[in-house]
Write a structure and sequence with these properties.
Elements: H1 57-68, H2 78-91, H3 105-115, H4 129-148, H5 157-168, H6 176-179, H7 184-200, H8 203-209
Length: about 270
């Protein structure tokens, strides 16, 4: 499940957004939890915004807005937004980021749904993105109550993961009336794609993966032989070990069938 979201060891979160030390990835040399940092990942000295002098004004404004202006919540209700936050914290946890550098995923998804931005199509067996997310949240909540007798936001990290793992497996427990109207595997892909799109559209995520941001109008200089551009930072890898409670080390095909099925937003 979580491996669809990230290849890097961000796997745990709790209700208040702070993970306990035992739920965090650890340094195998010391056995101690890796502490949150302003810039996680393998490019700790890189800043995409350091390249803004090479962008035109329109590009600079778009990128700056993503850092400086978090969209308000206008589509989700307050309860839906809290539940969606808890879900996103498990699909793509950010416990390795300090509080000042966490990426606002839910507001970005909310903005897309509020504005009605879509890819121009939907599957015949899927409702609109707006209805799909509302139904999906209801389904997740119904599953949490069916499996554990509590709201999803009241569950611990492992329990929350087990609920979402049932979605990934295409085997929801509870909420049959909802999943009868909402194809579970298509919804799972829609959810994961929305989370990924929100995260990796943000310059902080670009810093994490060493992406230099828009190449316009400068362009790229070195297009062959895998050579780095002059502004790219060298990778600085470090070792980490997943916590014992993590499900990230296991793999199972989407829907339990091995078939790759596109979500509402497609396979891109």
């Amino acid at each position: 499940m979580a491996d669809e979201a990230k290849s890097h060891g961000r796997r745990t979160s709790v209700r208040n957004g702070e993970a306990a030390a035992g739920d965090l990835p650890t340094d195998p040399r010391t056995g101690k939890a890796l502490t949150p940092r302003p810039q996680p990942g393998y490019y700790p000295d890189f800043s995409t915004l350091s390249q803004e002098a090479f962008w035109d004004e329109a590009t600079r404004n778009v990128v700056r807005t993503r850092v400086e202006n978090t969209p308000p919540i206008r589509f989700f209700t307050a309860d839906e937004a809290r539940l969606m936050e808890a879900v996103c914290n498990r699909v793509l946890p950010q416990d390795d980021r300090d509080a000042d550098h966490r990426i606002a995923i839910v507001p970005t998804i909310d903005e897309r749904l509020h504005s009605g931005r879509i890819d121009g199509y939907r599957y015949a067996d899927m409702p609109s993105d707006r209805e799909a997310h509302r139904l999906g949240l209801q389904g997740i909540e119904a599953m949490a109550h069916h499996l554990y007798g509590r709201s999803f936001i009241e569950l611990g990290p492992s329990e929350q993961d087990s609920v979402l793992l049932r979605l990934h497996a295409g085997d929801p427990a509870g909420g049959d009336d909802i999943w009868g109207r909402l194809p579970v595997s298509r919804y799972w892909l829609l959810l994961v794609q929305d989370v990924l799109e929100a995260y990796y559209a943000h310059p902080y995520a670009w810093d994490e993966i060493g992406f230099g941001g828009p190449a316009y109008p400068r362009g790229y200089m070195r297009l062959e032989h895998g050579l780095p551009e002059p502004w790219e930072a060298p990778e600085q890898r470090y070792e980490w070990t997943a916590p014992a409670s993590s499900l990230s080390g296991s793999y199972s095909p989407l829907g339990g069938s091995g078939e790759i099925t596109s979500g509402q937003e497609g396979s891109h």
